[in-house]
Design a protein that fits this description.
- The radius of gyration is 24 Å and the shape is globular.
- About 30% of the residues lie in helices and about 20% in strands.
- The mean pLDDT is about 95.
- Helix 8 runs parallel beside helix 9 and helix 15 packs across helix 16.
- It has 20 helices and 22 strands.
- Strands 1, 2, 3, 4, 5, 17, 20, 21 and 22 form a nine-stranded mixed sheet that branches.
- By secondary structure, it is an alpha/beta fold.
- The chain starts with a strand and ends in a 19-residue tail after the last strand.
Length: about 575
């Protein structure tokens, strides 16, 4: 009889802490780490399967703690676009958006426009499969579902609010929830916390809009809540020691002080709070230092606060005007509010509208995520091939027109066939290297599963490891490889309070085996691949020669860089991980 189901031999073993790595053998039995020993001690003959990891890193499976896989998880539970990059635990329910309490159409409408996954794909999925209305029922569904990676979840405030109040009342500024409705929100949130949800996610950013025919283009329901409603729910989070994830209103920077008041622990338990996002914005260089100051104040005065930080340039792709960046100013919002393309084109051709657009375009002091510089936007694809590879500003100069007029002319002429690209932040490597060292930030924010034509950060953990390895090769190390792995694994698991992120005897065997030499390639390249069971393609990442093997619960999910066919089709891989069970 074999002593081990799997034996990993000769790899550089990282346990998920900042402790020094070493060459070791790891024996796995019944989905758990059975033995960790010096290399050569364990007998390969006693194992059913042997993985030769010489020259590779053996790390805990990575945590991706900001995804929007809520809909995809239902019909394509392998989540293979993350697993292939070594991710073994994903967090859903971010940005106030879960699919738990609201009915099928409401859940679809608060999700699809914000996350740019087509409504005509998501709504039928929810209408067919959604039988749950409560957190307990959602967890029961997950426990019976053949999920690929482990799943952890927030309860989304927009979902909670809509489930209790209905979408119309939840998006009416003049309506406040009744005493009974507030009590119902309390009950559902407490049920979620009892079932092991991480906590609550909220949204104050008003650029994110509702889809569908009923409440089209209203902001997300969470944005309509008065702060006393949020503070009331926070009392439950504080009692259970759980997490509040939020997004401040970029148009009102002082609004972040409301989150600061909540996280502080004066005469009460601190509230774990994570906000979106620490970023070095091109369009607003004050965001980065202000984020550092906010984190210092919050944690220095008794809070428990973390920003979310994307450890790579924030690259955005757009089809015509269909990109959330235009929601942040009046003229762009006005155009995106019109769904009919012909009607929108008439607006874009109107000279009065163009004057308004040019006014917003030249404003440099208003709060914004996009730098509003068409000279920093490259045309990637267009029926007019002469535009490809060039920026809008130089093309406009050649034609002797204002760059806004040229851009709008191209949108009218080509619509979504005009595809372009820009980087909105984290463009300065020296600033980025400083930010990733911050103890007040979580290395996360991939948005995996969303913005399927606009961005692709599925390989976020590998990008972070490359940044660290490059700094070492240049003689200016940002941190040790052990600390880098810790930031992607044990550190986040510890802060969230979940059983993940480590390789120690007795731990669940969620393991990534990667060749560090595979990090020495362009990890920012994107490709197109099928989005399983959605009937469309999306932008993804591919990193050949890097992640060799992935084990989830001791089972092979990736073998020799290939996704195992059973992943997402059979049970025994990932599971719903309950918070507070560490």
């Amino acid at each position: 009889m074999s002593q081990y189901d799997t034996l990993i031999v000769g790899g550089r073993y990282f346990d998920g802490s900042p402790n020094p790595s070493r060459i070791a053998d790891i024996g796995i039995r019944d989905g758990r780490i059975a033995t960790i020993a010096d290399a050569g001690v364990l007998d390969p003959a006693r194992a059913t399967r042997v993985i030769d990891a010489r020259g590779c890193w053996v790390t805990p499976g990575f945590l991706d703690t900001h995804t929007h896989y809520d809909a995809e998880l239902i019909v394509a539970p392998s989540l293979s676009e993350s697993v292939r990059h070594g991710v073994t635990t994903v967090l859903i329910g971010s940005c106030s958006l879960s699919m738990v309490c609201s009915d099928a159409e409401d859940a679809s409408d608060i999700f699809t426009r914000v996350e740019t996954v087509p409504r005509e794909k998501v709504l039928p999925i929810l209408q067919k499969y959604k039988t749950w209305q409560r957190p307990k029922e959602w967890v029961e569904f997950l426990n019976a579902h053949p999920i690929g990676p482990n799943v952890i979840s927030f309860l989304g405030h927009s979902d909670l609010r809509t489930g209790v109040m209905g979408l119309h009342r939840a998006t009416d500024r003049s309506v406040a929830p009744t005493k009974e409705e507030l009590g119902r929100m309390d009950q559902l949130l407490e049920e979620a916390l009892e079932e092991g949800f991480l906590g609550l996610s909220t949204m104050c950013l008003k650029w994110d809009k509702v889809d569908g025919d009923r409440e089209w283009s209203k902001s997300l329901p969470s944005t309509y809540a008065r702060w006393r409603e949020v503070s009331r729910l926070n009392r439950l989070l504080r009692r259970y020691g759980r997490v509040h994830q939020g997004a401040p209103n970029a148009a009102n920077p002082l609004q972040v002080t409301q989150y600061l008041r909540e996280t502080l622990g004066w005469l009460r338990k601190p509230l774990k709070t994570t906000l979106i996002a620490m970023i070095d914005l091109k369009g607003n260089p004050t965001v980065r230092p202000m984020a550092r100051l906010v984190a210092w104040l919050a944690n220095g005065f008794g809070g428990n606060f973390r920003w979310q930080l994307l450890p790579t340039p924030f690259a955005i792709y757009a089809d015509g005007m269909d990109i959330v960046l235009f929601e942040e100013f009046g003229a762009g919002e006005m155009a995106l509010d019109i769904r009919d393309q012909l009607e929108r084109n008439e607006l874009l051709k109107d000279e009065g509208y163009r004057r308004t657009f040019r006014k917003f375009y030249k404003e440099k002091l208003s709060p914004r995520a996009w730098q509003r510089d068409f000279g920093d936007a490259i045309v990637l694809d267009c029926p007019d091939a002469s535009l490809v590879g060039r920026n809008f500003a130089e093309l406009a100069r050649e034609r002797g027109v204002h760059v806004v007029d040229f851009f709008l002319d191209m949108v009218v002429a080509h619509g979504r066939a005009l595809r372009w690209f820009t980087v909105v932040g984290n463009h300065r490597k020296d600033r980025l290297r400083e930010m990733v060292k911050s103890p007040h930030a979580l290395i996360t924010f991939s948005d995996a599963g969303a913005h399927i034509r606009n961005m692709a950060f599925y390989n976020l953990p590998l990008r972070f490891l490359k940044l660290v390895c490059e700094s070492q090769g240049q003689g200016e190390p940002v941190m040790s490889p052990e600390r880098a792995v810790h930031r992607l694994t044990g550190e986040q698991a510890d802060w969230l309070g979940i059983d993940a992120g480590y390789i120690r005897e007795g731990d669940r065997a969620d393991i990534t085996i990667l060749d560090p030499q595979g990090l020495d390639q362009d990890l920012e390249q994107v490709e197109w691949a099928e989005m399983e069971n959605f009937g469309l393609e999306r932008m993804v990442n591919r990193v050949p020669g890097c992640v060799k093997h992935v084990l989830i619960n001791g089972r092979a999910a990736v073998t020799d860089e290939r996704i195992e066919p059973e992943l997402g089709k059979q049970g025994g891989f990932g599971q719903f991980l309950r918070a507070g069970q560490r």
